[in-house]
Write a structure and sequence with these properties.
The chain is an alpha+beta fold. The chain is built from 8 helices and 22 strands. The strands form 4 sheets. A 5-stranded mixed beta barrel has the order 1-2-3-5-4. The protein has a 5-stranded mixed β-barrel with strand order 8-9-10-12-11.
Length: 436
């Protein structure tokens, strides 16, 4: 059997074990499942029919009677999950899987305990507002929380249970917003609002998006109904739920939510939020943050770079991986690691700010770059490495951790005596904590 064939078999066995849940290991082993699947294939039975037969043999139907779980109880990487919930949103999406286009559905589902995102890998004919009984789903980790997945062996049917349209609203401040929160109440100021037209299930719909803020921070919002929001409005939003994009919270609300305009003096002046780096890492992402720390590393990719004029990707040996050989456009950036003693974050500094901090223009640095790339990197290291700087920007979370896209950057004058006093005080506090 080729490695590709074995990989396909392993993928199908994984589907079967998800469907059978904790029966695997108790009533049947993975090796036995693989032997049975191989035998069906040798007899020419189609793979999907073979999988369904094996699952039915080991009691697929018995999972219907298994105990229902509340959404708040779910953990990532659970199998054989049974829940009852109200579909809050459902949207189609076309993806490419193993070279083939496939239509899936994604949205949010709620019960009495919380709201969770879901992905349906086929059309279950579920509708917004419908209360459904979901049998034999599974969970995967998503943005630090469990995401429900409705797969080939999941069963979804209408449920008679009463699930409220909204839970008792939970009052939140902006800095308390995090993905997965449902039925919240928040008072915030509209800093910006725009509208765009999107296609939902074949029809055009207007959606409104922008930035909200209170005295604790800023977040993104998306409104699926025209609440006549204007820049500068202070509003109380009841019944919204929270998703996130790259760690930045996004409040979402629609016509089922209550939006009430309040007096402008309900919100104090909105300021940039200053964070310790460990706080920012724990939060994951946020808008308009400020951090201070020492530059401990200049990362690869800093200096003069050449970008594709079509897609802005950085060229490699004069070629774009999408558009091939192109006449590149010169740019400048610094990619640094900032550490404040509590943690470290990546910071990406654009051309204008890099020119500012280096006190050199791109044109000046291009001359050095064409001679030897290392000269430009040496200038950046000499200007930034081990320096204390203050960064303001948006913090995003991705597979590489937390990254700040700098909007402003300044060098911080260090008072050596004051810093020594602070360090001595910290040492004393640590020492006293050990003594107690």
């Amino acid at each position: 059997m080729s490695s590709n064939d074995q990989s396909e078999i392993s993928s199908h066995i994984e589907d079967i074990t998800k469907a059978l849940g904790d029966k695997v290991g108790k009533e049947v082993t993975v090796d036995e499942l693989e032997r049975q699947l191989q035998k069906f294939l040798e007899y020419g039975v189609p793979i999907q029919q073979a999988k369904k037969t094996i699952i039915r043999k080991y009691g697929f139907s018995s999972t219907v009677t298994e105990k229902r779980k509340f959404l708040k109880e779910l953990q990532p990487n659970e199998s054989s999950v049974n829940v009852i919930g109200r579909i809050i949103t459902v949207n189609p999406k076309e993806i490419e899987l193993k070279g083939e286009k496939r239509k899936i559905f994604y949205g949010m589902i709620a019960d009495e305990s919380t709201v969770l995102p879901f992905t349906a890998w086929r059309d279950f004919n579920i509708e917004k507002g419908q209360v459904v009984r979901v049998t034999n789903a599974y969970t995967k980790p998503w943005q630090g929380m469990p995401q429900l997945n409705f797969g080939e062996y999941t069963r979804i049917e209408p449920a008679e249970e009463e699930i409220p349209d909204t839970q008792e609203p939970r009052k939140c401040k902006v800095d308390e917003l995090k993905s997965g929160l449902g039925s919240i109440e928040i008072v915030a100021k509209i800093l910006s609002v725009k509208e765009k037209e999107v296609e939902v299930e074949g029809s055009k719909k207007k959606v409104y998006f922008g930035i909200i803020a209170d005295e604790t921070g800023k977040a993104q919002f998306t409104a699926w109904h025209n609440f006549d929001l204007k820049e500068g409005d202070v509003v109380k939003i009841s019944g919204g739920y929270v998703k996130s994009w790259r760690g930045i919270p996004q409040l979402t609300f629609d016509e089922k939510c209550e939006v009430k305009k309040l007096s402008p003096d309900k919100i104090k002046e909105v300021n940039i939020r200053k964070y310790k780096i460990w706080e920012l890492i724990e939060k994951g992402g946020a808008l308009d943050v400020e951090v201070e720390g020492n530059v401990i590393e200049i990362r690869e990719g800093s200096g003069v770079i050449v970008r594709c004029p079509e897609c802005n990707r950085v060229l490699s040996e004069g070629k774009c991986k999408v558009h091939g050989s192109v006449n590149g456009v010169y740019d400048l950036r610094a990619k640094i690691v900032l550490d404040d003693g509590t943690g470290a974050v990546n910071v990406i500094v654009n051309r204008d700010l890099t020119e500012k901090i280096l006190n050199k223009s791109l044109d000046e640095l291009k001359e050095l770059y064409t001679t030897t790339e290392e000269k430009v990197q040496d200038i950046i290291k000499n200007s930034l490495l081990a320096k204390k700087i203050r960064v303001v920007g948006n913090a995003l979370r991705d597979g590489f951790g937390t990254t700040i896209i700098a909007r402003d950057i300044t060098e911080v004058d260090v008072d050596v005596k004051e810093e020594a006093k602070k360090l001595l005080q910290e040492i004393r506090e640590v020492g006293s904590s050990y003594e107690t």
